[in-house]
Amino acid sequence: MKENQFEKMQKIVSTVVDILLGILVVIIIIVMGEALYSIVHEVIPLKSTESLYVLIEEVATLFILLEIILMLLRYVRDDHHIPVRYLVLISITAILRQLLLAHGGGLETLFLAGAILVLVIVLYILEHLRSFSKPEIVAKKVLEKIKAHEKEE
């Protein structure tokens, strides 16, 4: 009886989360539309170097918002699970945006580049761990090793 109540409560919470995420996606799409409107009306003429910086800032922001929408859609599609890979990719995009827009010193640029390097290494490690965790890939590698060993004999 308690399990049935727990399952009902879990479905209700899941539905509420999905609705809230849907509202969040709509809000993000509206913000993206506003940014596109701003780009077309205020930035595209590129009257000065400042407007070029604004264009780069707006485009970088659009990429981050797009990544967030894709992550939210994947979250709903994959039964409320976000792969760490998406979070790392969004972090890399955000740091790249900061790197493009930062007009700080060389040390700040070096730290941002180092942060990107660390995140890329994390992505590389995650991809290799993911390939080892899939049974079909592990089985395929084992079969390849067995066949290679049989050919040697």
Characterise this structure.
This protein is mainly alpha-helical and 153 residues long. It is 88% helix and 0% strand. It has 5 helices and no strands. Helix 2 packs antiparallel against helix 3. Belongs to the PsiE family.
Structural class: mainly alpha
The percent range for strand residues is under 5%
Rounded Rg:
23 Å
Shape: flat
* Largest beta-sheet details: none
Oligomer: single chain
Helix content: over 70%
**Count of DSSP E strands?**
0
Provide a count of the helices: 5
- The average pLDDT score comes to 81
Low-confidence stretches: none
Count of distinct structural domains: 2
End-to-end C-alpha gap: 62 Å
The SSE string, one letter per element, is HHHHH
Please provide a brief summary of the model:
This is Protein PsiE. The chain contains five helices and no strands.
Question: How are the elements arranged and paired?
Answer:
Layout: H1 2-43, H2 49-77, H3 84-101, H4 106-133, H5 135-152
Helix pairs in contact: 1-2, 2-3, 3-4
Observed structural traits:
153 residues, mainly alpha, 2 domains, 5 helices, flat
